[in-house]
Queue: 2 jobs
Job 1
Amino acid sequence: MPDPRVVKLARLLVEYSTRIQKGDRVAIEAQPPAEPLVRAIYEQVLLAGGHPYVFFSPQWVEELVIKHGNDEQIARAPALRKEAYERFESRIRIYAQSNTRNLSGANLERESMLKKAVGEIVRIQMDRGAKGEFRWLTTLFPTEAYAQDADMSLAEFEDFVYQACHVDEGTPDPTAFWQGVKQSQQHIVDALRGHDRMVVRGPNCDLTLSIKGRLFLNAFGDHNMPDGEV
């Protein structure tokens, strides 16, 4: 039986964050450990009338490209992902690493080349997203590797993640919660808009910085989950 929190999160991502509608093409990008969430999202996209496409990417893909690929192979942006970013209406990306240090011994120059190639796809994402043509969302699925990095058991880390996303038993209506975050944070955005300087003071902080001409955005679960920042 699937974890009800996973199902609740999938529904939140599809109905609230990416607002999938009938006919929308949705790229679901994930690493294999996230299969339970991928399955739940796939189902929710179907129920919404969309067309889900799964892109699984094992961690060894990057390792092998960096180790054995020539310069042309490393510098080429993944064609299928690029096509999806250029044409689809939405994408949901799920980080679910089984080893957070798998590239520790990689050649840094070649790794930089690979990141530059992927950056081409990210630019498409940001450009189409800013125009309202592409609804993108990034989230995380709890794994043993992430739990170890956090000095937690897997069960503890799962609780931490799902509570942060507000899809646990303590939040009966996650959508209403994140809509409330949007409303509360808008007061901060409005207060900062049009000012030239910000001063932050606390017990161990005395910081003054320029905010002249800056644009402040309200982040409330539409691009990242969990979220809640300006």
Note: The beta strands are 25-30, 51-56, 90-95, 135-140, 197-202, 205-210, 224-225.
Job 2
Amino acid sequence: MEINREAGEMSSIIIPIRKGEDISKCVWHIRQSAYQDFEIIVVDMWYERSKQRNIGITRAKGEYLLFLDSDQYVAAGLLWECIRLMQKGYDAIYIPETIITKGWFGRLRNWERQFYTGTVVDVVRCVRKSHCPLFDETMSGPEDADWGNRVKGLRAISKSCVYHQDNVTILTYFKKKAYYSRSMKRYYEKWPDDKVLNFWYRCFGIFIENGKWKQFLARPVSALAVMFL
């Protein structure tokens, strides 16, 4: 893949963390990337993730922004591919996510996650800075979807992925969902007609649209488990 390295076409990789989180694996994989014109901005200030990301946005010097969490790491060709897509005229990139948590629950969540890529449930992770709004700091959880709704421009889906090693158990999964749900009223006030708030679509339609029903019904036990979640 050929990239035109014009002046100012640097990427800023923004990673909000909480004290004590180990980001060595995340940073190591970034530094192994095929594309090397980037800066890494780690924000560790004990704020909510949305505020930390906003700090990263205001400090970023790159023309393109990539948002990662501390428990994620990039495939070797991801940065290169995102830059190439931006240079082709795209403004925001959906990046497939591979969950690599061990155990049956981890495998189930990874299978479920594959249905979301590029849908209204998914959120772009790499954006052109000129098209990047700030995150709504009044939200905790839905701020990703709210921010994604406000990102303007042409979108694409990368072939390379982000790996997510979050080690979430069933118990912590539900605690996490309960925490995120606290901001859903605020999200509904801003986006009352958002398709993601439609119960039928969120729990059923997203798994069967565009021919995905074949993949979904091929694993009936997993499908029932996902419906439960």
Note: Residues 1-8 have pLDDT under 50 and may be disordered.
